Amino acid sequence: MKIIRTIAELHAARSEARAAGATRVGFVPTMGALHEGHLSLLRTARAENDLVVLSIFVNPTQFTEPSDLDAYPRTEEADAALAATAGVDLIFAPDAAELYPSGHATTVHVAGRLTETLEGAGRGEAHFDGMATIVTKLLLAVLPSTAYFGQKDAQQLLVVQRMVADLGIPTRIAACPTARAADGLALSSRNVRLNAAERSRAIAIPRALAAADALVTEGVRDVGALRAAASEILAAADITPEYLAFVIPESLAPIDSVDGPVLCAIAARVGEVRLIDNVVLTPTPESTQE
Ligand code: AMP
Fold this sequence. Notes:
Layout: E1 2-4, H1 7-19, E2 25-30, H2 36-48, E3 51-56, H3 66-71, H4 76-85, E4 90-92, H5 96-99, H6 113-116, H7 119-123, H8 125-142, E5 146-150, H9 154-167, E6 172-176, H10 196-202, H11 204-218, H12 223-236, E7 241-247, E8 262-270, E9 273-281, H13 285-289
The structure holds adenosine monophosphate.
Adenosine monophosphate binds next to helix 2 and strand 5.
């Protein structure tokens, strides 16, 4: 496994691998502080490709709060050790000046509801501009056949799919399921910043999602009823969500009845730490008839 700092070295390593017969290149972009969620993406990439590239870059332009950027964990040595166990071939870990050299003036902006709602409303438009720009730059630097993204960041995944389709970037975008701790909390690099009391309150987030899911399985269709049940669980843990949204998974348009798959998404601060999670609610044919 090689650690690479520049785009020029990355292109050279990629050409070398291609000359040696590697045609399928899998890419997992991350901000580091790797956990089992990242590793699940890397293992999928390893199983499906000849060459696996991991990027580690805490992208300053997608952080809308300077304190969040400062507090973001940076653990490159441990990340490299974990990446090696997942069979990564190349780690691309550039510094900010490599990706944003002086004079850098281009932003990729995905317009409309996909970036304006939920995380876009909560964190500001700059968040998705920063994310779309860095993902475009990384895809062009790595030129992967497939790039792997987590369903945990469902809106990010949608924005990336839109952008790749619109710009004609020849990379398949693969969606991977959310990896969770045994108690249900979605794994996140930010979880290390929760103290013990916050960590146990945070479980209310996946529980609220699970409660909505269970009600849909029982045949409940009214979003008002689902919202009430989820809100009650969050409130009991003293969590006021920034949003608790029920939307069409592809368009993020709000709905008031579960007549097909619905993305239920939550963002909430637990102490200082902003957490997000989601689940796709799918009415079963049997429960629809009730
Ligand atoms: P991040 O380092 O948080 O920017 O995440 C890098 C990639 O890992 C993104 O595609 C995330 O959606 C994905 N990811 C983060 N947490 C999880 C998780 N718990 N399960 C699956 N994928 C995840």
